[in-house]
Every structure is written in structure tokens, then in C-alpha cells.
């Protein structure tokens, strides 16, 4: 089959790789009809390269048609249409029982001290082949895949694989009081959905991003916006009676701009041998923290900081004096996708499209166009906000 593979820092290519096969009774094989490029994929493209191996199949936002199921899979059959969550969870362990599927004890990558295995996301999370491919082997298919209807287009459902539940969890964790104000830093795909979810819940929502096309998209959905730059925390306080927003979601993560020292660290990591680079990431602060520190500055005293953006540094410096003094609550973590999909499914199927799932994709291609679109997405060129690949096209 054809699949998008990691070839080195800043380099991906479409290659012929072996077709996946059933390995365990709880496996399924899914023919991928749509798969998206996620902002987290850019971490593999740049910062997390030391944990990647040449030829790794990437991608973790897929959906498609079931082609084959293992003997223990009774909830699916050939021909079913499914969305595949990015984290692989069993559904019956202690953590899954708590609704913490991203910490699944059955699939935890204990050798790396990591949580649940993820599709297409490096040695840190199990080196499981990903979904930017023609076919995907899905472990624990007796629990993970979300079965969906056959009438609506893929884009109604595709984002249930990651970014929509990630945004939903971010807003849940933000815990904004009724009628309160939510600020969202970063208006990429997760930030777009987080702002729309906030509006849908009756909150005042302010989105912050330096890219005009992203701000314009958010404004179409009733979101106030600000350009990101020096003084944005003061602007947010001016807009909220001098206090700051009740909660801030950081939907940016390690790809943030405006941190030249960490930017240099990102580049330096790419020059080290993999084992040395891994050690540096596990013991040093290598994140660009401008957006995170601005979020801490901006949120009101007693407010909540909700982290949806992914960070990779173990020793990244944090302003603990400010955080303690302001009595900020901080909530974060990989999304527990299956915890939220039952709540989200009626919303994506609603004719009114209340979360605007049909107003997100800016670029589409077959697999062959993926390498160029990775570069375009990483550089934020051509108004690129969300890319969907159709492997069968």
C-alpha cells in the first residue's frame, strides 16, 4: 500500500509499505477514506525527530471502512464506517474506567514512561503505524473505533478522531462560569473548535492569533479576536474589567513563535545524534513558551489555564511565583477521545452544524500532495489551517 512516511527532520514522503494484517483477535483493518494533518504532526516534522525512525508511517486522524476484523471483535463487521481515535485504549482497565483513556494501562508505553499508545506518533508512544495511508491496522477495535452513519460526508465525522474532542476537553477543563469569558491562544484547528464550543455554550470568547486568515475564520463564528503580540495580556485585561479572562486555553504548544532561545534549542536538537537529543529532551527545557507565559499573565486571579497544546520539554521554566500568587488552576493532558465522542456525535450530525465542522478544511489532496502540504501547513502559508488527505483519490 501507499503511505506517508517520515524520512528525516522536515522530510516526509509517500512510499510503498507492506499492507497491515490482523495480529491480535481484537484487531481490525480499516481502509482509509479520509485522514487529516494535525498540528501535532508538525512536532514529528521538527522537534520530536529524535524519537522517529526513517520509514515510520505517520498520521493519527483517520476514518474509513472496515475491511477485516479479528475473531474477538463483535461490535464491528466488514463494511462498517468508523472514525479511529488517535489514542489506543482498551476500555476495560482502571484508567479507562475513570474516563482517562489517554492513560490506558493496557497500552501505556511503559518503556518510555508514556501514556497510552498513539497512532503514528513516534517511539515515545509505541511506534504504532499511523493513518496517513491507504490501510490501517487498528488494535483494540472492540472498543476504540467510533461507528458512524453512511449518509453524511466524511468531514462531518473525521474530526472526532482528535481535534474536536481535544477542543471539547480543553473547554471542559477550562471550567468557565456561566456567562464568563474564555480566551483561546492559537487559532489553529483545535483553537478554532475550542472557540466555537465556547460560543455554543454561551460564553464570551476571545481568540488570539498572529495569522489574519485564522482570525477571520474565528470571527465567522461569533468570536472576538486579537492579534498576538506584545501587550496582548494588557488588551485582554482592558476587555474584561481589568481582571483578565476567567479561563485561558493554550492551544499553541511547542510550535509557538516568539521564543528565540527555545527556537535555537529546537534547531540544536536536530544536530545531535538521536540518543543524545532524546536525553536532552528528557532533561532540559526545549519548549517555546511565549504563548504559555502570556496565558499565565492574562488569566484572571483565581482563573483556570487549560493546556491543549502539546509541550515536549521536561525542564521548561515556569513562573511559579506568579502562578501561586494568582491562585491559577492548571489542567492539561492528552485528550481522552472516547470519553467525549458520545456527547459530540449528535452535534456533528446536527443539520445546523453548530460547531462548524464543515467550515474548517482549507486544503485537500490525495496522499501524493501531502509532503508539500506539510511544509505549507508548518509555514502557515496560503491560508493553510486544516489539511485533509483522501488516500483513495
Structure description:
This protein has helices at 41-45, 94-97, 154-157, 163-174, 189-200, 212-219, 232-238, 260-269, 274-283, 290-298, 320-325, 337-349, 370-378; strands at 2-8, 11-16, 28-37, 62-69, 81-83, 135-138, 146-148, 181-185, 204-208, 224-226, 247-250, 304-307, 329-332, 363-365, 387-389. The chain has 393 residues and is an alpha/beta fold.
List keywords for this structure.
Rossmann fold, seven-stranded mixed beta sheet, alpha/beta, single chain, Quinone Oxidoreductase, Chain A, domain 1, ADH-like_C, oxidoreductase activity
Query: Uncertain segments of ≥5 residues (pLDDT<50)?
Result: 256-266
- Using the 3D structure, state the CATH architecture of the largest domain: Alpha-Beta Complex
Shape: globular
Could you give me the name of the CATH homologous superfamily of the largest domain?
A: Medium-chain alcohol dehydrogenases, catalytic domain
CATH topology of the largest domain: Quinone Oxidoreductase, Chain A, domain 1
Count of discrete domains: 2
Which class of secondary structure composition applies to the elements?
Answer: alpha/beta
H/I helix tally = 13
What's the mean pLDDT score?
Answer: 91
Residue share in β-strands: 15-25%
How helical, in percent, are the residues? 25-40%
CA-atom Rg in angstroms: 20 Å
Could you tell me how far the N terminus lies from the C terminus, measured between alpha carbons in angstroms? 14 Å
Helix-strand topology string: EEEHEEHEEHHEHEHEHEHHHEHEHEHE
Amino acid at each position: 500500500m501507499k503511505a506517508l512516511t517520515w524520512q528525516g527532520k522536515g522530510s516526509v514522503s509517500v512510499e510503498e509499505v507492506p499492507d497491515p494484517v490482523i495480529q491480535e483477535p481484537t484487531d481490525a483493518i480499516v481502509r482509509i477514506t479520509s485522514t487529516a494533518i494535525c498540528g501535532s504532526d508538525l512536532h514529528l516534522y521538527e522537534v520530536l525527530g529524535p524519537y522517529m525512525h526513517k520509514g515510520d508511517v505517520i498520521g493519527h486522524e483517520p476514518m474509513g471502512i472496515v475491511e477485516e476484523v479479528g475473531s474477538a471483535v463483535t461490535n464491528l463487521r466488514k463494511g462498517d464506517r468508523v472514525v479511529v481515535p488517535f489514542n489506543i485504549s482498551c476500555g476495560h482497565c482502571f484508567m479507562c474506567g475513570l474516563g482517562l483513556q489517554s492513560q490506558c494501562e493496557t497500552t501505556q508505553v511503559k518503556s518510555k514512561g508514556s501514556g497510552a499508545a498513539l497512532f503514528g506518533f513516534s517511539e515515545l508512544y509505541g511506534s504504532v503505524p499511523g493513518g496517513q495511508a491507504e490501510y490501517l491496522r487498528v488494535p483494540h477495535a472492540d472498543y476504540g473505533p467510533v461507528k458512524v452513519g453512511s449518509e453524511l460526508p466524511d468531514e462531518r465525522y473525521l474530526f472526532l478522531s482528535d481535534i474536536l474532542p481535544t477542543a471539547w476537553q480543553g473547554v471542559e477543563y477550562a471550567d468557565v462560569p456561566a456567562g464568563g469569558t474564555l480566551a483561546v491562544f492559537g487559532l489553529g484547528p483545535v483553537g478554532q473548535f475550542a472557540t466555537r464550543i465556547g460560543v455554543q455554550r454561551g460564553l464570551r470568547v476571545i481568540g488570539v492569533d498572529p495569522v489574519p486568515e485564522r482570525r477571520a475564520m474565528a470571527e465567522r463564528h461569533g468570536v472576538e479576536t486579537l492579534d498576538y503580540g506584545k501587550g496582548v495580556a494588557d488588551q485582554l485585561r482592558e476587555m474584561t474589567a481589568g481582571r483578565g479572562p476567567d479561563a485561558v486555553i493554550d492551544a499553541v504548544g511547542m510550535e509557538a513563535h516568539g521564543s528565540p532561545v527555545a527556537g535555537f534549542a529546537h534547531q540544536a536538537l536536530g544536530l545531535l545524534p538521536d540518543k543524545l537529543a532524546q536525553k536532552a529532551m528528557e532533561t532540559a527545557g526545549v519548549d517555546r513558551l511565549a504563548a504559555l507565559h502570556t496565558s499565565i499573565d492574562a488569566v484572571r486571579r483565581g482563573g483556570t489555564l487549560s493546556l491543549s497544546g502539546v509541550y515536549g520539554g521536561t525542564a521548561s521554566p515556569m513562573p511559579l511565583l506568579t502562578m501561586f500568587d494568582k491562585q491559577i488552576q492548571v489542567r492539561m493532558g492528552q485528550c481522552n477521545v472516547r470519553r467525549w465522542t458520545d456527547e459530540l456525535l449528535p452535534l456533528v450530525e446536527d443539520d445546523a452544524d453548530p460547531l462548524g465542522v464543515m467550515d474548517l478544511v482549507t486544503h485537500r489532496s490525495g496522499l501524493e500532495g501531502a509532503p508539500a502540504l506539510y511544509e505549507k501547513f508548518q509555514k502557515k502559508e496560503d491560508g493553510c489551517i486544516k489539511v485533509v488527505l483522501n488516500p483513495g483519490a
